[in-house]
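Below is how a single chain appears once it has passed through the pipeline. First comes the sequence as given, then the structure the pipeline wrote out for it. We keep one example in the README because the format questions we get most often are answered faster by looking than by reading.
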Amino acid sequence: MSLIVTYAPKDDESGIGYYRRLTADNALFGWRHLTITAGVERNRRALLMRTDDVARNLGLERTWVDFARQKEDQCHHWGRLHRAHSDAVCPACLAESPHLRHHWEHAYVTACPQHRIQLVDQCDACGKHLSGERLYIGLCSCGHDLSMLPRVPASQVQQWLSTLIVTCSPI
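Resulting structure:
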């Protein structure tokens, strides 16, 4: 079964973030439900690595699913530096375009090089970490708009390290 709404991933979008955005825009209840539609096992790795099945069954361009797989490969090479248990986001970036940036998945990227503010990994409304299972990228599971999170200036060290990682890794 093909998806109703399809589009290409954004240039700086994470692989799983692309599928999470597609899931929300197609009114599915989480990316794990997307795996059922794609005809693959209900795990992140299968969704991102079984590109032939995913492209065919979801009606996506092969280049789009290959892009998502390449982003996942980069995360895999980060090893323990891959932020896998919760999301970190830049509220200003989300206000501009609600999609997950690939470099936000690196544990040492703690600031947004563009906006020079700290990434946020907890909701200020409910206090919980931003779940990778929430339905909408721009909202916390409690419903709080993540673009409204506090914008705390990043230190020079945070800016330097985050910019170094973002510019030195193929994104």
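The mean pLDDT is 95.

See the next section for the split statistics.
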